Amino acid sequence: MFEPIARQSASGAVYDQITTRVLGGDLGPGDALPSERNLAEAFGVSRPAVREAIGKLAQAGLVEVRQGDATSVRDFRRHAGPELLGALLVQGGRPDWSVARSVLEARRLIGVQVARLAASRADDLVAADLRAAVATLAADPDPIAQQQHALAFWEHVVDGTDSIAFRLIFNSLRNAYEPTMTAMATVMVAEVGRTDLYRDLTAAIEANDEDGAERVATTLLDLGTTALTAVIDELQSHDSELER
To answer: Which of 115, 119, 97, 117 is nearest to 107 (CA)?
Structure first.
């Protein structure tokens, strides 16, 4: 089931392999992992490296460690956090389209509420940061850089909510999205190229216009959601044809 580790961080590679087995269903909830010694032999790494990986897996909600008992797999759907979205998006070298759709749904729903909350709480400093972010976005024609500038803009919006919960959720969604920016560059132009809407959203937040911020954020995020959904539909259809 496991493969010897050749390069990279030993504990990180152990973590990655076990995570892949858990998310892929090879290891199900309640299954016991081999002993620390057996795992070290199977992976060809030291026991401290295995111990460190197990600690990371437990922290991620993927396994449960009980003193004097075997380490068992947990149901990640009940215990893990959104930081696993990146690993769930691509499994076995293939994208999971249902996960991709769920990320889009979360991005759209959370983004709208974050914009509304920011409009009720944002101060002059946040407004200044938003204006600067829009100016940077408008000045850069590169579609990949535009996505980076758009993420920076939304980071300031999240800061305007003064909510650590929204901040951590944003971090997880951003980390899942960032590896796809190059592939999605031409698609996301539909959203990140609408500098006018970013300006309108900034104005609504600065004016403490909650309804206006919600309305503009919905329009803006729907542009990217529609464009990305169309791509997912096409790619999913292509995959289905190949499987026939």
So the answer is: 115
Q: Are 101 and 150 in contact (CB under 8 A)?
A: no
The string of DSSP letters for 221-233 reads HHHHHHHHHHHHH
pTM: 0.81
Any residues with CB less than 8 A from the CB of 222 and at least 6 apart, and which? 108
Contact 2, 22 (CB under 8 A): no
Q: How far apart, in Å, are the Cα atoms of 220 and each of 117, 121, 149, 194? A: 16, 21, 15, 8
Question: Which residues does 47 contact at the CB level (< 8 Å), separation at least 6?
Answer: 36, 37, 40
CA-to-CA distance for 19 and 8, rounded, in angstroms? 16
pLDDT in tens, 36-48: 999 999 999 999 9
Location of structure tokens 């216009």:
209
